């Protein structure tokens, strides 16, 4: 059975093959088709550094239809981050690629290493803006509000 996922993408470091962070995200959007069918892509936006990060970020979002359950999809996303050159480091530090499951068609998911909906998405304009462009009517299973409604409050 296929599920739909809203995936947030971020980058603020160049990649040796793909180049600038915006181009890293475009390449990652293509590569994500290995995990399912990318049905919608948000325009890539620029956003300010967060926490210890020093460089401006490029952010985007996709809707992915996939046969994978949330833990298997998370494993695939983490593998892709490593393939793009992401190294373990500080939270919110500079990174080549960051991929997060924000929402999924199954509602909530709770496990030690994965919470859906993503715990911080409601207060992050750099997630809500791209997500609203492609999935504005998707609802947060906890608040019942649509992404568009949440974004209007931020």
From TrEMBL:
Transferase among keywords: yes
MF annotations from Gene Ontology: 2-amino-4-hydroxy-6-hydroxymethyldihydropteridine diphosphokinase activity
GO biological process: folic acid-containing compound biosynthetic process
Pfam name, any one: HPPK
Alphabetical UniProt keywords: Transferase
Signal peptide bounds: none
Family per similarity comment: Belongs to the HPPK family.
Function text: Catalyzes the transfer of pyrophosphate from adenosine triphosphate (ATP) to 6-hydroxymethyl-7,8-dihydropterin, an enzymatic step in folate biosynthesis pathway.
Annotated NCBIfam families: folK
Name recorded for this polypeptide: 2-amino-4-hydroxy-6-hydroxymethyldihydropteridine pyrophosphokinase
Species of provenance: Erythrobacter crassostreae
Gene symbol of the encoding locus: folK
């Amino acid at each position: 059975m296929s599920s739909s996922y809203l995936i947030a993408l971020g980058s603020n470091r160049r990649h040796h093959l793909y180049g600038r962070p915006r181009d890293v995200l475009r390449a990652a959007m293509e590569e994500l088709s290995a995990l399912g069918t990318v049905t919608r892509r948000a325009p890539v936006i620029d956003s300010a550094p967060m926490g210890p990060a020093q460089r401006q970020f490029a952010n985007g979002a996709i809707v992915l239809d996939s046969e994978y359950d949330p833990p298997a999809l998370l494993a695939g996303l983490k593998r892709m981050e490593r393939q793009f050159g992401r190294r373990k480091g500080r939270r919110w530090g500079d990174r080549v690629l960051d991929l997060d499951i924000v929402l999924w068609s199954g509602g909530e998911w709770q496990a030690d290493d994965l919470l859906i909906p993503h715990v911080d998405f409601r207060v992050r304009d750099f997630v809500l803006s791209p997500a609203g462009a492609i999935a504005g009517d998707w609802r947060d299973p906890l608040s019942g509000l649509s992404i568009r409604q949440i974004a209007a409050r931020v």
